[in-house]
DNA sequence: AAAATTAAGTGTATTATCAACATTTAATAT
DNA sequence: ATATTAAATGTTGATAATACACTTAATTTT
């Protein structure tokens, strides 16, 4: 019984690779590191690591994210399992990719430096090791899909944000522009934003109101399904 | 170089489990087997098996499907990687679930009997081993999502089908009814169905025209995105 | 104090899509 | 010739999506 079964089956190295997205006000960025291990050491790579026997795969992903950024309780979602034979020239490694959304300035800069990590705009990606480019491409598509139906975009913004920041985020994610009037009306009509009595004044004389995402109101609406955009 | 890296990392058993969907004209069915291995041998289970070192994970899924049904070149899609610590009481096994869509009467009956496999309506699922119920639930949600935007429903129908069969399929997938007039108009307006000069006559005196999915027309439209329903 | 500047904030008209609803038609059976 | 059966089809109203430009609030300059 128990751990004695399945003795004669092949065993695999399981990597977990994290596509970590951030937003700096203009473009969507991915957090990339200089790969520490051979093969391909020193080249640009997603942050990754091997799963361990004593942790779930989700926990492994959270551990690897924490290790790089110092952050926990981060929005994270499994993306896909990459299982091609020759995807890693260092050996047969099956990789489970996760994507995470973080506030770009929340991470621990010392840790980032330790791993030689940099935020790099999705439109200016350098060559990446293995199949990591494919992973980022898929993650971007999934982010578009996710952000259409779920209020996860706020994970990429400061706690307080203006409508123009929110619109800039959506425009960056979808690589297209939206009409300001239509966008504002649509978003506000969802009833999940709360306006503060406080304005952002650096970018205009009039100032733009700050908003916060109202999680409680969202929870009430969640079951019906919500169309963000 | 090559296979000498990564020596000291944990290795995992990788299972592949297949959610195989079929449609019998009224309900969506899953192909379930009586589990052959301990633990939980003899209980209802998804068809599964262990991945091998010499095959990609996609290939492993195709092999397992072929093994049960005798079918290849089947619509198949990776669903999710299930990696919880205790999901399999027989040991630490990470499972990658795939879902497949097949024509219910196309599979090899001898093979099905070999594995004591049965088509079971999603609404009448028996208790299943491990986390297989969760897998089916997720697969059903993914099927709904997939079939909304992609013309994969046809994989579940005979080559020639009537509009009422197609509607019955969508009603089974979404567990709701559609207005016949609206449904017909919407589907035909996509321009991806070709009407044959042939009628299905068993269920009415007038007879209902057969249609086939026109893959060529679809390919032309694919890039724009298509809203099936 | 008045005028100019800047980006924020807002309304309307048009079009397209979705949803609700019942009658006519083709083929066979009586 | 009539009855039967399910298939095929059209219209209307409601809602959502799109396109488009002026007014307003606050500060800066004259």
Could you please describe the fold and organization of this structure?
- Two copies of one chain form a homodimer.
- The first copy, chain A, has 229 residues and is α+β, with helices and mostly antiparallel strands.
- In chain A, 29% of the residues lie in helices and 28% in strands.
- Chain A has helices at 57-69, 109-114, 132-149, 163-174, 180-189, 215-222; strands at residues 11-23, 28-34, 44-50, 75-82, 93-101, 118-121, 161-162, 193-200, 208-213.
- In chain A, strands 1, 2, 3, 4, 5 and 6 form a six-stranded mixed beta sheet that branches.
- In chain A, a hairpin with a 4-residue loop joins strand 1 (11-23) and strand 2 (28-34).
- The longest helix of chain A is centred in the middle third of the chain and has 18 residues, at 132-149.
- Chains A and B meet through strand 1, helix 1, strand 4 and strand 5 of A and strand 1, helix 1, strand 4 and strand 5 of B.
- Chain A binds a DNA duplex (30 and 30 nucleotides) through helix 5.
């Amino acid at each position: 019984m128990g751990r004695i079964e399945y003795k004669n089956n092949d065993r695999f190295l399981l990597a977990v690779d994290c596509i970590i997205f951030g937003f700096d006000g203009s473009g969507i960025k991915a957090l990339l590191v200089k790969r520490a291990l051979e093969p391909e050491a020193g080249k640009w790579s997603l942050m990754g690591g091997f799963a361990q026997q004593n942790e779930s795969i989700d926990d492994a992903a959270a551990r690897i994210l924490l290790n790089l950024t110092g952050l926990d309780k981060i929005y994270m979602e499994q993306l896909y399992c990459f299982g091609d034979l020759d995807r890693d020239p260092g050996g047969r490694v099956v990789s489970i990719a996760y994507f995470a959304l973080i506030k770009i300035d929340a991470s621990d800069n010392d840790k980032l430096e330790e791993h030689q990590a940099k935020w790099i705009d999705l439109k200016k990606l350098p060559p990446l090791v293995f199949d990591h480019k494919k992973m980022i491409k898929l993650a971007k598509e999934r982010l578009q899909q996710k952000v259409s139906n779920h209020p996860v975009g706020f994970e990429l913004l400061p706690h307080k944000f203006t409508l123009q920041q929110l619109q800039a985020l959506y425009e960056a994610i979808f690589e297209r522009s939206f009409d300001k009037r239509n966008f504002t009306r649509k978003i506000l009509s969802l009833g999940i934003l709360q306006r503060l009595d406080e304005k952002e004044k650096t970018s205009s004389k009039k100032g733009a109101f700050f908003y916060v995402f109202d999680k409680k109101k969202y929870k009430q609406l969640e079951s019906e399904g919500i169309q963000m955009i």
